[in-house]
Amino acid sequence: MIRSFLKILTFLCLVQSVSPADAASLYLGIDVLEARGFDVLEGKRIGLLTHPAGVNSKGIWTRDILARAENVNLVKLFGPEHGLYGTEKANDPIKDKKDPATGLPVYSLYGQYRTPTPAMLQGLDAMVIDLQDIGTRSYTYISSMRLTMQACFENGVEVIILDRPNPLGGLKVDGPILDPELRSYVGAFPVPYLHGLTIGELAMMAKDQVGWLEIPRDNRVKGKLTIVPMRGWKRSMTWGETRLRWIPTSPLISSPAAVLGYAMTGLGTELNGFQHGYGTPHPFRLLRHKGIYADDLMRHLATIPHMGLRFEKRTVSNQQGKPYEGVYTHLDDWNAIMPVEFSFHMMILACRIEGGNPYADASENAIGLFKKHMGDPAWWKEISTRGADARLDRFLRHWRKENQAFVQKSRKYWLYPP
User: Which of 43, 60, 175, 299 is deepest in the core (most CB within 10 A)?
Assistant: First the structure.
């Protein structure tokens, strides 16, 4: 562990030699790697796990940067959910293929296999991971990272993470911590729903914490992990402050607004009559509820404690070109909002609007998947049995206390200042 931290400290010192044209510039991990002449890749046979949002600060795809570098031997490509090219729908299995631009094999980690097999890793010295995460536990790119780390450590392949911003910043931590018994592909680590870490920091914590990687201790300890950190990013920065262009990380996460919406309404629109704007320009931000008009929904939403939010009736066109009326959730004050808590208030509100308990009638499959996303079986028992009378306040107090302890625990893995 000490050796890993010394390696990271060395990188932090090295990137100071990068001379920015603008003092406010932000250098992503791939920018820093390129500025250093790809020194950690030199002499190694490289695999790359990435997607279209894995670009440098100028918008150039990491695949192209590594493929063109004279001293980089890129030999294999790997794609997560939605594929290397980001064109596949959620939950759709993806097949292996050949990349037409480079002629390299592309191994799918969201098809027959989600963990790289020894055959896939054969001939590799290092696996570079450049994935843009969104800071929310149930988003699957950190799961792909976890399974790839495990396989690489077991097969003697170094893991090199090119770090990227957490688009929701590194200071806001919110929502329940995942119960380890609910670990799944939509729940990789026992962290809060909003964890406040970059993908590189999360990888460091996963390697260090007992039980976070499902491999023998010796493989975990001996596994070689190198983080190429950013330069110029601070924990207080949300995506808009980075001045970087957002590239959709998946079909529904098409903008930074959708990133916040996923954290804020994703859980609250499941297993009830709420709709989150699927098929409109505002996924996860434009709310509707079956059977009531937008004006009535606004009045209902106004009963929720919603510090930092403002609601506005809005009509847009959906994918079929038809009018779609809903309630848009405006963000007025990022410092005031607790986005994940809003989802749990929505769950109770759904019971009040519907005059019953939609969660009591959910199918076993739907319940199982929701619990894996949400992470706290005690809350599911509470809402599914008590409905509108669920005692949310006591859960919020418990989660906030747990999250304070998590921040203190995770602070030693921070690579960036507040």
Answer: 175
